[in-house]
Design the sequence.
């Protein structure tokens, strides 16, 4: 987990990607890398997810690619077999935790309550996703949870954008944010790689 967390702490923004067409995976990954964010959390919301991860892994070795919205062991195995370097889920899952950790893959579960976090800590996880961040109180809730779990790092996702990203990252327990705004689904559908690169560069300027 250390290497993965180091990468997150360097980039500060982890692009969250939804791909309906695996043919868009490599151009998108290259656009992210050109903008200074060589990482992609490819969500398992579409049938193209596993193939997208496979193509990015094969053709864009400079991009750290992982799987998001992983809900069960079957999806976790498909993601790992496709080459995912990390696994993210919207909620804590014992079966996903056991599968990812058992294969030596970093796992970042979604949490929003002390109970969620306590479950995650049973696996000695050093960080969790805080999701959906805006809906569950944003930074103020993260600070309250951090007081109870002082050794834990957070990756807030959901409602994080260019307007509030600095506020989140100013808190020392926020290692990184999940960034959907830098590669929105509409931009991907339009194949507007130039704009995605521009948004990534803007995000880098805001966060470094």
Sequence:
């Amino acid at each position: 987990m250390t290497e993965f967390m180091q990468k997150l702490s360097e980039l500060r923004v982890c692009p969250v990607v939804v791909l309906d067409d695996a043919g868009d995976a490599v151009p998108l990954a290259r656009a992210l890398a050109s903008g200074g964010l060589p990482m992609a959390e490819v969500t398992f919301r579409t049938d193209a997810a596993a193939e997208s991860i496979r193509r990015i892994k094969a053709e864009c070795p400079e991009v750290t690619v992982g799987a998001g919205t992983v809900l069960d062991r079957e999806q976790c195995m498909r993601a790992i077999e496709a080459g995912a370097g990390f696994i993210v889920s919207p909620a804590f899952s014992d079966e996903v935790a056991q599968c990812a950790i058992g294969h030596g893959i970093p796992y970042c579960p979604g949490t929003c309550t002390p109970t969620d976090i306590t479950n995650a800590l049973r696996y000695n996880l050093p960080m969790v996703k805080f999701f959906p961040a805006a809906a569950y109180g944003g930074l103020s809730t993260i600070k309250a949870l951090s007081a109870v779990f002082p050794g834990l790092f957070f990756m807030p996702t959901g409602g994080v954008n260019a307007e509030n990203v600095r506020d989140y990252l100013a808190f020392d327990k926020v290692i990184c944010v999940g960034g959907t705004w830098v590669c929105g689904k509409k931009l991907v559908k339009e194949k507007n790689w130039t704009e995605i690169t521009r948004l990534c560069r803007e995000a880098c300027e805001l966060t470094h």
